[in-house]
Amino acid sequence: xxxxxxxxxxxxxxxxxxxxxxxxxxxxxxxxxxxxxxxxxxxxxxxxxxxxxxxxxxxxxxxxxxxxxxxxxxxxxxxxxxxxxxxxxxxxxxxxxxxxxxxxxxxxxxxxxxxxxxxxxxxxxxxxxxxxxxxxxxxxxxxxxxxxxxxxxxxxxxxxxxxxxxxxxxxxxxxxxxxxxxxxxxxxxxxxxxxxxxxxxxxxxxxxxxxxxxxxxxxxxxxxxxxxxxxxxxxxxxxxxxxxxxxxxxxxxxxxxxxxxxxxxxxxxxxxxxxxxxxxxxxxxxxxxxxxxxxxxxxxxx
Amino acid sequence: xxxxxxxxxxxxxxxxxxxxxxxxxxxxxxxxxxxxxxxxxxxxxxxxxxxxxxxxxxxxxxxxxxxxxxxxxxxxxxxxxxxxxxxxxxxxxxxxxxxxxxxxxxxxxxxxxxxxxxxxxxxxxxxxxxxxxxxxxxxxxxxxxxxxxxxxxxxxxxxxxxxxxxxxxxxxxxxxxxxxxxxxxxxxxxxxxxxxxxxxxxxxxxxxxxxxxxxxxxxxxxxxxxxxxxxxxxxxxxxxxxxxxxxxxxxxxxxxxxxxxxxxxxxxxxxxxxxxxxxxxxxxxxxxxxxxxxxxxxxxxx
Lengths: 302, 302
Hints:
2 copies of one chain form a homodimer.
Chain A: H1 21-24, H2 27-35, E1 40-42, E2 44-45, E3 48-49, E4 59-61, E5 71-77, E6 80-85, H3 98-106, H4 109-127, E7 138-141, E8 146-149, E9 159-160, E10 165-170, E11 173-174, E12 177-182, E13 194-197, H5 204-216, E14 221-231, E15 236-244, E16 259-263, H6 265-272, H7 288-301
Parallel strand pairs in A: 1-6, 10-15
Antiparallel strand pairs in A: 1-4, 2-3, 5-6, 7-8, 8-9, 10-13, 11-12, 12-16, 14-15
């Protein structure tokens, strides 16, 4: 991947490493990659990143991996096989550690993408040790990119793949203003784009329309896709969209949204610039909501 | 959802029913919906649709549901609560029954969307009866939109939600031609857009670039999202994109792609028109690959 892949590359979306799927699925080639003297291991503290003195992701020689842990092939960087340990760490909920957010905000795009991949997969393995089809234990396969239920030990043999949950995150536009909202868990004054999981039997565009109807009581048209971002808390694929409505009357779902309002171009710009007089605090730059707002401002000024 | 939601509405993407998430999550309201005299049940034969004499999806009164089966709230259509039975039918692989494909091709968009939702969820429940976290049995919750591991019977209490697996399906363009390929399982002469699952730690755009590199050996830039489609075989979200490459040299992954070639505007138009002289047979109209080709032809003809 290069920077001319798309106009907007959000944090975590800038991966360039060769994921080497043909090595993953070939036990001989996988073993050969593990044996290479330059093979390296991403250091993790549970699910959290570990940084070296320069503030980059820290790596160790692969032989430092615990013999008790399965290995995940993150990919091959140039000629360096890169692994992470399936260390059993799992978290059902997003991480709220402010230090994590700060450190991710300054990582180079390629490193943020590697951490996102490692975090999602380590977490997925920890929370999917059993077969959803028959209840028997499963084992890591394909260099950590699948789990399989063991037929020889009485299981059904089903193969399971890591989840990636598509989430729409969206603006609605009306009379030159955009809709932003506050979830109850947000820090004070923070407003962001509304969001929700895409459900079975639904397109991205249908999901955008449903979420805005359920959460804000507005009917939208002209849904337009802007950009996407992997979000490893725990395993979302964020898909940022805009839409248009003709009636700004809001009816909020107060369980999901504690406050929502329409903001003008000037108000959004003030918030993006960190102006203390701005009527709200913008989402942080590593969230795709930030890219979505920035893109809207640029389109207005274009 | 209305037809002005987006420029392209592929088959299965045209849902308009109110999914009524506030009813799903409220046991009292859910019970009230089940008790309404007009509540109705989508007829299914395993995972296959059942049609009435007019060729529409067939419905029965809700009391015809088996008392042994949990119910799935598909949504509320006007004031009619619509359910399906979690009948235990599951299939790990796409359905290949030509009669199914024919019948889906002529269903009105709203009905195709309801069938897609029902099929994905009935299948998901059948193949996820156990907790992936602890191996204990799980139970349907929230009107069929979740399963929960039962803490009182020794489980861990984890809640599980239906999977929706994002898949990129893409064209690459080079010198006025587009790349199409054949999977070994395709009928003779059929060519279609290449496709693959988006992986953890990857954007849609990154997934498009990776798939085209892995399967066809080309490096692309300028990935552009076109449209999306729920695809219930078993639970994909298809996201159709275009991209551009400067070097048409192909290196195929022959496990995935048995043949691939660049086709001109005239050749694609001939195939879309069903011309017997066309160099390939186009994908069927209910596949988003068809919408992707149609959109490309329209863009070329401006």
